[in-house]
Predict the structure.
Amino acid sequence: MSCDFFALANTGVKGLHPYQAGKPTDELERELGLTNIVKLASNENPLGVGELVKAALEKELAGITRYPDANGFYLKQALADKYDLAPAQFTLGNGSNDVLELIARSFVTPEHEVIFAQHAFVVYPLVTQAIGATGVAVPAKDWGHDLPAMLAAITARTRLIFIANPNNPTGTFLTAEALYQFLSNVPKDVIVVLDEAYFEYVDKELQAPSITWLTEFSNLIITRTFSKAYGLAGLRVGYSISHPDIADILNRVRQPFNCNSFALAAAEAALSDHDFLTASVALNNQQRTVLETFFNAQGIGYIPSKGNFITMELTQDPAVVYQALLHKGVIVRPVAGYGLTKHLRVSIGTELENETFMQALLAVLAELDAL
């Protein structure tokens, strides 16, 4: 007789549902038999990767039988050189999601509260619930973070605050001044995670000098990733930057070899490929304007975004629109799980991908209006 394993699971895990990623192209191929598919669901870099990364991956093949460097020495050194910091301030992760979970597991217990914004990245409430801690979702302001309200939500039980800037999935953005004032008012024993997964897509004049704040706010942890602008989503490598004492704690919990050798080599190479990064950001800026112009012309609502995606607001049922787009070979992202019940998120692709999406969306909306 089988055991009731659900009864053995901890309370927080029992209430969880698996993270729903964007539909893979091969899954849609299997389901509908389509071969010409445009995936604009997971905020991936439509340019792929640069030549420096390809060369690094080719070189790494010779050592595939060996374990990777468990401490990521060369990548940490490259990051330290880039930001003029000490390698001891970095923690590497299997994507920045891994680091977000490390932070929660290292500092949060069931007796604590974790603050995040309504419509913020779903991993924040997921890791909070898995630990058994209390999640405090502060109502959004203009689809984004209400920092004064988040400050007001801090109690004696608060241990951790998550802030995404730009925010996923809404694309909303907090100014450097607003963030600095917020950090200045957070108690020093409350850890603030500033999730900057889309940092590289923000116009340089708007980018917060968050790295420089680390000397002033020892309770600040910055997380970034190579999955977005650097194009390494499939290799899963991200990192956090923090006070060395925090990094030391995180590295005690971090699994050995959580970054494979290909990820380490590719990330190090990507850091030095400035031309590829510049091209990726330029394409995103250009095509974001194309999509915004399209939405404005068609009277389709959307949330202005600083990331490589736009969340649109529909008058038709988003679930119906999503399914209809799938049948036309276009994959976007449902976001009802974020409390955005009238919206779909679309990643910004190449000119051809975006044109395919726009034409498919117009066709779907016309078909639905005709019903």
Q: What stands out?
A: The CA atoms of residues 113 and 155 lie 8 Å apart. The longest strand covers residues 158-164.
